[in-house]
Amino acid sequence: MCDSKKKYFNRYLGGICVFGSIVFHTGNAAAVELTANLGLAYREYTESASFAQQEGGGFSFTAQGELREKWNDDNTVLTVLPFYRQDEMDEERSHGDIRQLDLIHSANNWEYQVGIGKVFWGVAESSHLVDVINQTDSIESLDGEEKLGQPLIRVGHFFDSGAISFFVLPYFRERTFPGESGRLRFSMVVDTDNPEYESAQEEKHIDYAARLQKNIESVDIGLSYFDGTARMPLFTPDFTANTLRPFYPLMKQTGLDVQYTGDKWLWKLEAIYRDLSFDNYAAEVGGFEYTIPGVANTNIELGLIAEYHYDSRGDVVDAPFQDDIFAGARLVFNDLDAECLVGGYYDRNNQSKSFLLEFTLRMSNNMQLNVEAQAFSNIDRLDPFYDFRNDDFIEAEFKYFF
């Protein structure tokens, strides 16, 4: 982040801290919760790197804290959630972030939020098309689940079986990418120090968003709208420096997410329409999860998952799932306090395949084991994941909570 960006971001952050300090000193504090966790992970890549300078396996260390303070009869909540990772393989993956630093106040069916927040939209398992508020922290995970904290102002109103929220997003966070020595990167390294923007205001462009949520018996419906800077950049190659320069266009997105909850069935749909100055397209992901409780008269719960992805643009770099099927299974071991997700993606156009495994075991009140694995098979040259074709890995992480 260059100096001008740091100054702008720090001014916003300073304003939050001043506002929080005023509320803290004038409110009646009721409860303070302070938790933290430390993690040590080792990741091993099973194949030789595709590009020079890339490293093999190695260790990384994480630290995350959370402070939550409530007052005014728990109607006002201050949350602070810092995160840091130190990685021995990739200096770009060594980074810190304020995942959350916000104040939320509730009164008379209204809710007000200001600060750096985390907002999640979506219902699908394999991709979250409608989730557009927070920027993806892509050096943390390939699946896009990890997000950077987003500066925001939100006003929400709750009514019978629903809610509506309005967002003002005064600062844009650039996407993170692996460095030259990192794995799961493109053949040309992304030059994160020199991004380009369609807006003349660059990262200071003010974005707006709104979302309506409604529950109708067993159906949950979300209708959203976003107008601002796209979170996923396009890339311009710089052959002199052998880098990719990210370009962040402006976009308007209308999104729909629907989930039907039955006795054993979950039916899910996410659909978007995006309007950019140079293109417009539609995309959707939909499918089901069927739960089988008490497998073979045990306390194991099995969920069978199937989802289909469609993107009207076809085979383009920033549409990784354009005619793809995801199939997987979720196992919940209730006796062990453990959960496992296994699954795979199949590209119907070029027969490329990728597989994933996520396993979590709570070993005690203070210890947790996480295992993650990713594998690629028969990746076509035109597939967006072609540069990751040799980046199969398995990672084990121990976390200690206190």
What CATH first level would be assigned? Answer: Mainly Beta
Major sheet characteristics: 18 strands, antiparallel, barrel
Helix content: under 10%
CATH architecture: Beta Barrel
What is the SS-derived class? mainly beta
Topology pattern, helix = H, strand = E:
HEEEEEEEEEEEEEEEEEEEEEE
Alpha carbon gyration radius: 22 Å
State the domain count.
Answer: 1
**DSSP strand content:** over 45%
As residue ranges, the low-confidence spans are none
- How many alpha or pi helices? 1
**What is the name of the CATH superfamily?**
Porin
- Mean pLDDT across all amino acids: 92
Distance between the termini: 32 Å
Question: What do these coordinates show?
Answer:
The protein is built from one helix and 22 strands. It has 402 residues and is mainly beta. The protein has one domain (3-401): Porin, CATH 2.40.160.10. It has an 18-stranded antiparallel barrel. Strands 8, 9, 12 and 13 form a four-stranded mixed sheet that branches. β18 and β19 form a beta hairpin. 25% of the residues are buried.
